[in-house]
């Protein structure tokens, strides 16, 4: 019996089919690929490209995209610091469930605060949390401005916009960093390929 947060008198119920059996069934290992970076840095692009590449290889993955989750699970949250923290905590918990289900869970959120990302890492066995930093310059993200939000933020019409008047704390020890080479951004396929190579090398795409 335990007390956790506001929940009292609660018990953990173990099911007979466990993570190992699910992984054997799927012939892969469950993990979380956590993509962090500024708005417009290419998080959703990488998430979708990686999702497609894994599917092509017969591997099951699922994308948890920050923007999309704010249409449902997280629609009660805004962008002040405590809301972002709760947003990341919830997605971290959901991602943990997907990884436990045996899937390669791809979470793509700005997740601007280091302590929030580290808290998600701490929810999983360390090697099962693969942090991917979209290290793109603000100038590039702002020039892309695919949703017109940077323009609104610069005009003061959106307050607390990440990179403009709200902080982004880059990872200190991420597993993968995606950046421009000679001023050129890798293609979506190349970005996905880099993550697939990492997963392959660490044995996530097989189960023996
Ligand atoms: N104030 C402010 N700051 C940053 N982003 C904003 C803001 N207001 C709205 N948006 C839009 O919300 C998307 C980011 O949602 P996330 O859930 O990923 O953000 S966070 O991780 O909680 O910081 C983000 O989507 P992406 O561009 O895909 O990153 C924006 O479209
Ligand atoms: N590697 C890339 N090469 C060229 N354009 C890209 C690349 N990644 C993203 N983009 C473009 O940049 C814009 C923002 O990408 P998006 O994936 O929506 O970023 P985020 O999810 O981080 O906000 C989109 O118009 C997208 O097509």
Give an overview of the whole structure.
The chain is α/β, with parallel strands linked by helices. It has a single domain, classed as P-loop containing nucleotide triphosphate hydrolases (Rossmann fold). It contains eight helices and seven strands. The protein has helices at residues 19-26, 43-56, 66-69, 81-100, 114-123, 138-144, 149-154, 188-201; strands at 2-4, 7-10, 31-36, 61-65, 104-108, 129-135, 176-179. Strands 4-5-3-6-7 form a five-stranded parallel beta sheet. A two-stranded antiparallel ribbon has the order 1-2. Helix 2 packs across helix 8 (188-201) and helix 4 runs parallel beside helix 5. The longest helix is centred in the middle third of the chain and has 20 residues, at 81-100. The protein is globular, with a radius of gyration of 18 Å. 3'-phosphate-adenosine-5'-phosphate sulfate (PPS) binds at residues 39-40, 43-44, 66-67, 70, 79, 84, 87-88, 109-112, 147, 149, 158, 160-162. This is Adenylyl-sulfate kinase. Its EC number is 2.7.1.25. Catalyzes the synthesis of activated sulfate.
Catalogue the unreliable spans: none
Give the full name of the CATH homologous superfamily: P-loop containing nucleotide triphosphate hydrolases
CATH class: Alpha Beta
Q: How large is the count of helical segments? A: 8
What is the helix fraction of residues, given as a range?
A: 25-40%
Q: Which ligands appear in the coordinates?
A: 3'-phosphate-adenosine-5'-phosphate sulfate, adenosine-5'-diphosphate
CATH domain topology? Rossmann fold
Assigned CATH architecture:
3-Layer(aba) Sandwich
Q: Please tell me what the overall shape is.
A: globular
- Rg from alpha-carbon coordinates: 18 Å
Strand content: 15-25%
Tally of strands: 7
User: Helix/strand-derived class?
Assistant: alpha/beta
Arrangement of strands in the largest sheet? 4-5-3-6-7
Distance between the termini: 36 Å
């Amino acid at each position: 019996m335990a007390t956790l947060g506001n929940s009292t008198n609660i018990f953990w119920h173990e099911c007979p089919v466990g993570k190992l059996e699910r992984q054997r069934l799927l012939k892969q290992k469950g993990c979380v690929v956590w993509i962090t970076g500024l708005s417009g840095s290419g998080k959703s692009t990488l998430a979708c490209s990686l999702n497609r590449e894994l599917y092509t290889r017969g591997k099951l993955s699922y994308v948890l995209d920050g923007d999309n989750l704010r249409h449902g699970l997280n629609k009660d949250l805004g962008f002040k610091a405590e809301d972002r923290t709760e947003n990341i905590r919830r997605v971290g918990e959901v991602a943990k469930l997907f990884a436990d289900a045996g899937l390669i869970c791809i979470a793509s959120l700005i997740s601007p605060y280091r302590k929030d990302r580290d808290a998600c890492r701490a929810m999983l066995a360390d090697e099962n949390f693969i942090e991917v930093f979209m290290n793109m310059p603000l100038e590039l993200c702002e020039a892309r401005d695919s949703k017109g939000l940077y323009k609104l933020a610069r005009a003061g019409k959106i307050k607390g916009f990440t990179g403009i008047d709200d902080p982004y704390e880059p990872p200190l020890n991420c597993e993968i960093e995606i950046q421009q080479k000679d001023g050129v951004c890798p293609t979506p396929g190349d970005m996905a390929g880099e993550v697939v190579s990492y997963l392959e090398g660490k044995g996530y795409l097989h189960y023996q």
